[in-house]
Design brief:
Blueprint lengths: L8 H11 L10 H7 L4 H12 L6 H17 L3 H14 L4 H13 L7 H10 L4 H13 L3 H29 L13 H11 L14 H4 L1
Helix pairs in contact: 1-4, 2-3, 3-4, 4-5, 5-6, 6-7, 6-8, 7-8, 8-9, 9-10
Length: 218
């Protein structure tokens, strides 16, 4: 969402996306930029903070630094701070689809699922077929009690996310006792049934918990 993430998968997916869109910064801020894209959350927070203090930082660079620091806050369950930084990132770049999706996820994780629907819909309008945004919308729809829409979005997330997304759901559902097949990245009717049961159960998350399944889905 990493996902990105959420709390595990959102990181996993989101970091991958953000890290795949590096921006050039002044040579004097190379160390801060390296830390801002670090896998270590505390280094990321410190590095992005230092980067944001760099004179002459371009708006797109500032937006990226805010988004990376927000992700680190989100991964540490500091959702209020994450949302504040996502607000800043999106204020600088209203079409920042990754930040929009991740803000929607932070809102969902902080118990404000309905407030995130506009963000994730905007993210999908900018990046149609994003498996990470589809997964976010599925979680939000599930929380809102729209079982049919949630199930549809989970299946679309697998269609566009392929083997890795399927493995994430296989692993997460297996941990919930709702899937007993192999974690092989292949869609099956047993996986579909597990998803149906999960989506119909309040509090059930088809994504794996932090660290769980990291090896098999990497």
């Amino acid at each position: 969402m990493y996902r990105l993430v959420k709390s595990v998968v959102l990181p996993v997916l989101a970091v991958c996306f953000l890290a795949s869109h590096p921006v050039a910064v002044q040579s004097s801020s190379n160390d801060s930029r390296t830390d801002c894209f670090s896998d270590d959350n505390m280094r990321r927070i410190t590095g992005c903070t230092d980067l944001l203090d760099t004179p002459g930082l371009r708006p797109d660079e500032r937006a990226m630094a805010f988004a990376m620091r927000a992700l680190a806050f989100s991964l540490n369950s500091r959702f209020s701070e994450a949302i504040r930084d996502y607000d800043s990132a999106i204020g600088l770049n209203p079409d920042f689809s990754i930040a929009l999706n991740n803000r929607a996820w932070a809102l969902y994780k902080s118990g404000r699922a309905k407030a995130g629907i506009q963000d994730v819909e905007r993210a999908l309008s900018l990046s149609p077929g994003s498996p990470h945004a589809l997964d976010t919308r599925a979680h939000i729809k599930q929380e809102m009690g729209d079982v049919r829409a949630a199930l549809s979005d989970y299946e679309l997330a697998m269609r566009f996310g392929g083997e890795r997304m399927i493995k994430l759901y296989q692993c997460g559902l297996q941990a919930q006792g709702l899937f007993s097949g192999d974690i092989n990245g292949l869609y099956s009717q047993s996986l579909r049934r597990g998803l149906e049961m999960c989506v119909s159960t309040r509090g059930c998350d088809p994504l794996p918990a932090d660290e769980e399944c990291r090896k098999v889905t990497s």
